[in-house]
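Supplementary Methods S3. Complex input for the magnesium ion-bound model.
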Amino acid sequence: MSRLVMKFGGTSVATPDRIRRAAKRVAREVANGHEVIVIVSAMAGKTNELVGWVNEISPFYDAREYDAVVSSGEAVTAGLMALTLQEMEIPARSWQGWQVPLLTNGAHSAARIEEIPTAYLDERFAQGMKVAVVAGFQGVSPEGRITTLGRGGSDTTAVAFAAAFDAVRCDIYTDVDGVYTTDPRITSKARKLDRIAFEEMLELASLGAKVLQTRSVELAMRFGVKVRVLSSFGDYDETAGTLVCAEDEIVESNVVNGVAYSREEAKMTLLGVEDRPGIAAAIFGPLSEAGVNVDMIVQNIAERGKTDMTFSCPVDEVGRARKALEGSRDSGDIGYAELLADTEVAKVSVVGIGMRSHAGVAARMFEALKDENVNIKVITTSEIKISVLIDRKYMELAVQSLHDAFGLETAGSN
Ligand code: ADP
Ligand code: ASP
Ligand code: MG
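Predicted complex, serialized as structure tokens:
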């Protein structure tokens, strides 16, 4: 019998009524002959609420306890989904991550999946169970404690289950009907893509398009899992949504295929840093140990043995970064004159695999931003993306103008 993974995001399980609606889709797939693994997120807004409580009580929290708290939202929806299915007379049972068990490493709050043993659920399916409902976003560490997989991690749970159980497909049900050229909440001109290549989706996700968690795309790419992103609200149709697939399964592609943004960024600058071998290691080593996710890095030209070092990181990690850098200065590992933090910046990026073979994308991007009078603070590039850091207040404007400049509203226009 074929296996199918269906993942329902927070808005799709936000109320008992929506859980019922999602369960009807599951019932249809059971009627189609599938054994279904349903992965659920917490109800919309629940995880934010839980994170808020943790921060209120302990700003530099113990990540083990953070995981104990924030994993609880998914436990509720998993049980409710199983109950809803049982009410529909479908043999269903729920499991939390540790019960399956979904085994992870010990990196609390950002754990990596190591293994999902399949024998137990296989046996349950063989005994007649039709739907296994599994709480997304969570697993268990080698020490036996609950871990979570980072925000948006239920997508990764879903793809990992699809790979482990050799599912025919992994359907990700969310509040938009697919992957768009940019976030449809930012511009109504955003266009739904029927297909998107793994590499592009990976870049879009890692640059802020939260429709899929980055790690879920990495896993899908590595294990060749067919991922479909679709809405749990629209009418059902076999071809609905966006298929995330290999590059060679896409007939026509633009040079630039998407615009992504990350709103909550910060720019930190160390002024008057000593310019000597090993200084970058002395700065970024402790930042990494403190769990600061450094993204863009710029080192200025040195003058009289001193240089300035700028980097970006998520805005909620500024406190951690400051503490780590001040600690390194106090212990004499680094010296600097001043530490500046600009917490009002955002990152905007254009992405496309066509950039590998086409020049001029950067110039076009900078021209579009110039026309809107948007000042660029930091630039980084890779083979298939260009990112800029700008003032947060211009973020929407920048996304809209780049979407227009590359003609993304129309297929095949750049
Ligand atoms: P879920 O709770 O279902 O996991 P998320 O909020 O994590 O949903 O992800 C869906 C959201 O991603 C959409 O509501 C949309 O605002 C946002 N998004 C950002 N970029 C894109 C994009 N390129 N295409 C589609 N949605 C996007
Ligand atoms: N509930 C978790 C979050 O909001 C995981 C998820 O929804 O994917 O980040
Ligand atoms: Mg999500």
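The mean pLDDT is 95. The pocket of adenosine-5'-diphosphate (ligand 1) is lined by residues 9-11, 41, 152, 174-176, 179-180, 182-183, 185, 204, 209-211, 258 (CB under 6 Å).
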